[in-house]
Structures are given as C-alpha cells and as structure tokens.
C-alpha cells in the first residue's frame, strides 16, 4: 500500500481499534397483518402479548377473552450495532418467528424495544418485513417451501435511541501489526 492510498482513507478502514466491536441487540415483538399464516391458538404467549398490548391502548377485555390470532406472530428481533453509531442512526433488523407461524410475508412489525446484554433499551424497531422465502400448499395437501418464510428483514428498520458505551481506552502507545 502506498502512502497516497493510505492518505485517502479513513483510519477505521485500514486499522482495527482495540475495544471497538459490534454490539448485539434483541427484542420481543409482534408481527401483524399476516394473511392467515400467523401463530395458531395453541401459542399462548402470542395470545397473551396481544391481549396485553390491547389493554395498554385502553381497551377493556374480559379475562376469558381468547382471541384467534391467525394474522399475528410472536417474533424475536435482532440487530448488530457498529461501533460509534449514535442516536438517530438507522440499522437493519432481522425478525424471526418464535411460535408456529407458517410465514411472515406481508407482515408489519409493531414498535419493538431492542435491548443490550445489560437489559437497557438502545433502539426501537418497526416496519414492513421483506421475506425471501415462501410456502405453498396444494389442494391435495402437498406443499413446497423455498428458503425460510419465517425469517425476514427490515432494512433500516430500527432507530438508535442512545449511544452504546464501549468504555474508553486511554494509552500513550500505539502498536502497529
């Protein structure tokens, strides 16, 4: 590498900074708007999550309410945050079914807080899913599945709410490898 090519690049492209690393975030959320391909009624945590969400909006529900949720799926939401990202920056998320949904195609992730390993909320995610897989069933019961229809992505689907501190490293020396 010549000195001219080094001068034209940010140092982060040609060096690794000790202590800089990705941070993983995870959250639990609901995908709605599925066309009958969501969790079945046996998935109790999806039912409980929907009932709790509806109650938070001030809707009174009888305790015996047993919603049919074929258009909803409980999901995990994950994101990888690069070093030095800050509030307001967008990051893509991966959304994966936790229950027995057949597909997340056509679904929308409801507002989901994303937490770090310390339990603190660092980002919030929501938006329409992009799903690369599909599942089709014929009248005679045969089915075809390509890729994974129960996992999707939301490009730039999360907004960072605060900085993830990696601690500061103060040293008087540089090590070149």
TrEMBL record:
Single GO term (MF): structural molecule activity
Q: Which Pfam families match?
A: FlgI
- Has the keyword Signal been applied to this entry? yes
Keyword Signal among UniProt keywords: yes
Q: Which GO terms describe its biological process?
A: bacterial-type flagellum-dependent cell motility
**GO CC annotation:** bacterial-type flagellum basal body, distal rod, P ring; outer membrane-bounded periplasmic space
User: In which domain of life is the source organism classified?
Assistant: Bacteria
Q: Where in or outside the cell? A: Bacterial flagellum basal body
Recorded hits in InterPro entries, A to Z, give:
Flag_FlgI
Signal peptide range in chain numbering: none
Which keywords appear in this protein's UniProt record, sorted alphabetically? Answer: Bacterial flagellum, Cell projection, Cilium, Flagellum, Signal
| UniProt record similarity statement | Belongs to the FlgI family.
Described purpose of this protein according to its UniProt entry: Assembles around the rod to form the L-ring and probably protects the motor/basal body from shearing forces during rotation.
UniProt protein name: Flagellar P-ring protein FlgI
UniProt organism field? Vibrio maritimus
């Amino acid at each position: 590498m010549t000195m001219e090519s080094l001068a034209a690049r940010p140092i982060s492209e040609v060096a690794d900074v000790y202590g800089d690393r990705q941070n993983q975030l995870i959250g639990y959320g609901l995908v709605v708007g599925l066309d009958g391909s969501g969790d079945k009624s046996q998935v109790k945590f999806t039912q409980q999550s929907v009932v709790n969400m509806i109650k938070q909006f001030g809707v009174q529900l009888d305790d015996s309410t047993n919603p049919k949720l074929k258009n909803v799926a409980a999901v995990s939401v994950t994101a990888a945050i690069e070093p030095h990202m800050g509030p307001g920056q967008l990051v893509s998320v991966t959304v994966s079914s936790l229950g027995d949904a057949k597909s997340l195609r056509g679904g929308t992730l409801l507002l989901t807080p994303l937490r770090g390993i310390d339990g603190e909320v660092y980002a919030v995610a929501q938006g329409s899913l992009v799903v690369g897989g599909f599942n089709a069933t014929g009248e005679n019961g045969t089915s075809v599945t390509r890729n994974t229809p129960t996992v999707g992505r939301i490009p730039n689907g999360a907004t960072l709410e605060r900085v993830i501190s990696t601690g500061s490293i103060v040293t008087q020396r540089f090590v070149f490898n």
